[in-house]
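User: For a benchmark we're assembling, each entry needs the component sequences followed by a predicted structure for the full assembly. Here are entry 17's components. Please fill in the structure.
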Amino acid sequence: MQRIINDPSLVVEDMLKGFVMVHKDIIHVHLKNPRVIISNAAKNQKKVGIVTGGGSGHKPAFIGYAGKNMVDAVAVGEIFSSPTANSFYDAIVEVEQGMGVACLYGNYAGDNMNVKMASMMAKDDNITVKTVVANDDVASAKKEDSEKRRGVAGEILMWKVGGAKAATGASLDEVIDAAQKAIDNTRSVGVGLGPCTIPANGKPNFSIKEGTMEFGIGHHGEPGIRIDKLASAKEIAKEMYNLIINDLPFQSEDEVVVLISGLGATPLMEQYILFNEIENLLNADNIKIFKAYVGNYFTSLEMNGITLTIMKLDDELKECIRMEVESVGLIQIGE
Amino acid sequence: MQRIINDPSLVVEDMLKGFVMVHKDIIHVHLKNPRVIISNAAKNQKKVGIVTGGGSGHKPAFIGYAGKNMVDAVAVGEIFSSPTANSFYDAIVEVEQGMGVACLYGNYAGDNMNVKMASMMAKDDNITVKTVVANDDVASAKKEDSEKRRGVAGEILMWKVGGAKAATGASLDEVIDAAQKAIDNTRSVGVGLGPCTIPANGKPNFSIKEGTMEFGIGHHGEPGIRIDKLASAKEIAKEMYNLIINDLPFQSEDEVVVLISGLGATPLMEQYILFNEIENLLNADNIKIFKAYVGNYFTSLEMNGITLTIMKLDDELKECIRMEVESVGLIQIGE
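Assistant: Structure for entry 17:
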């Protein structure tokens, strides 16, 4: 295992120390719970609190999205495993300002359970928590079972929309509705070309033969829908695009957000090459790119692979996407 | 070779198409030379033009640093090889506004030759070009041969300082002096844990045995100073720190910029873990971190490894580091 770490069981602790120091202008750590990261902007205005959380190893997700007009507090789990209910609860309490808290997270068993418990604990404190559960990964279950689908990079767009809506002073129900619409309008799919290794395990999380790729792989290495011969960027783009477009019917003249994320070891160069192919496909269908994001936005340690996310927009979503943001993982200067 | 590309000989072309489309709010491509990327902000004020250039495969370097208060135009080479003299020349002509052009680039034979030719061509057009050649990599030659040292991630700080100085309306000589001081005050060192593969070659650029690391490796895989047993983050940090501190004497109460960059496949988590150790070492020496950058700022395709860069500050450099920046690779909001 070729890693720059100290004790493999303390990688999250060690990482958080560095993260908090480097980004002290944007975030700080919870006074009593080192597994909760809070946006410095969280208390600057009376608004609905935005909370998320998830396993570590996906950097800049999740903690990198704490910031102004984005997420207010993030519960931090071990590598690829859910934060505790207590951490979600501490995050919720920290950002409650009398308007309730929107917990916007991904569809994984541990997160579901712990958010549910944290919401019950918060209820005892008279804090109203409502949730949106991201399920944008089209490859993780059939369309008729979409409530079983995993949340992947589309979560970033859900946070962007929820965070922007909350920043306008909207009510909890309005924030929840916007974030729910965001994820309902978003589809993602991933392709894996190489595995990653969780430090505490020391073994790769899956294996993939040289010259092949795994289509529909999850961002913890969950099995995909099939293993294919490694194809060209053009062919990979076409496959990914079709999986998404057939799941969420887009129409000519639609406007979309395209988000391409490397999974860790895939060079930015390849991400731009894939983007170029996706743009060609969208152009051919007369679908307009309103905003594009390309980079390592949601990773899986050093996995070699890429995810494509497309979100269909309406006026409300466009306004939310346009809003300025200042977080570690996403900085967007206002227009 | 596990890559998401089309024709291996066209990766730079394909990448640039995607890059230009995604970031059209920040940069555009030269009208006649597709190998020159220009900041949209370049013509907004009368000032010294800032040019750089280098091989591809280091993304976000070099093109990601074109932007407001940073680099005005970037000449783009093939993977790991110099841009042509013509591309440097086109970049220079594009950003000349009567105050001369500062060409701030890294110390590699091809770049040296092509910048020299481009400067001579520009002279025939009555454009004054002055240069600063980055040589921050302490492991690439002994101190007494520091003019032979390679430029690595310290180039980002040189561009930051040169770009900021130019934005204040400073003269060409003032910009050159500030950029030269920036790189003179900057030292870097890299560690490699795994190789990368240039698409057109199809073979890894070096080999490194599992359980070992190469100290002082260059960011094209140039041989380092020794191969060691893979150590802990704490030990790696100590080694890197000592190499730098012994080369550029720092004193108690100095203020510094710390820049840690992953080389491609090294997870952000590990970069923050290394930063945490570097911070401890600086604290022990009573050296203060004025600004820290941690992330994939200067990569080598999917190389597994990390670089540490430290820059010693004075008041002028601090002012330049503080200035807001809007580029793809570095966005910094003004204070």
